[in-house]
Amino acid sequence: MSREDAQKWARHFTGSMARTARAPISEKSVRPDFTNCVGKHDEVVDDGRFILDYSARSPLPEAEHAGAVKRIREELEKRGYAIDTYQEMKDAAQVVLRASSPKDDFSISVEAYGEQNSILYEVSTPCLLPPGVKQKEI
């Protein structure tokens, strides 16, 4: 997948979560972060491989956080995602959801903290190789 296609996919995915939460994303909050893939022995190969960590926020009052994150969790479960963590901490006014895609090997994080009055969406891809690029051996 190309960097451009990965970013389009991440934008679509976070947008879908925001629609489920009923809280539009603030465009000022969008942060795509591309990094090099690192092997298990800390090796980095210069063949175009990358990981995308993409984040965005939706403004949302604290009173609506738990319901919004629950809707996202339910939708992810319907679509076959593994829910790795789900916590509602009423004393700390926060909700945390971590999920993963067994099929595509990417991870999802949704966090809502009361004092911020927003929901943070993050998606991280596995190591991706752009189309037409020959993978180098490590």
How would you describe what is shown here?
This protein has helices at residues 3-21, 65-78, and strands at residues 26-35, 51-59, 82-89, 94-100, 107-113, 118-124. Helix 1 (3-21) crosses helix 2. It has 138 residues and is of the alpha+beta class. Strand 3 and strand 4 form a beta hairpin. It has a 6-stranded antiparallel beta sheet, covered by helices on one side. The chain starts with a helix and ends in a 14-residue tail after the last strand. It has one domain (3-124): Protein Transport Mog1p, Chain A (3-Layer(aba) Sandwich).
Quick gist of this model?
By secondary structure, this protein is α+β, with helices and mostly antiparallel strands. It has helices at residues 3-21, 65-78; strands at residues 26-35, 51-59, 82-89, 94-100, 107-113, 118-124.
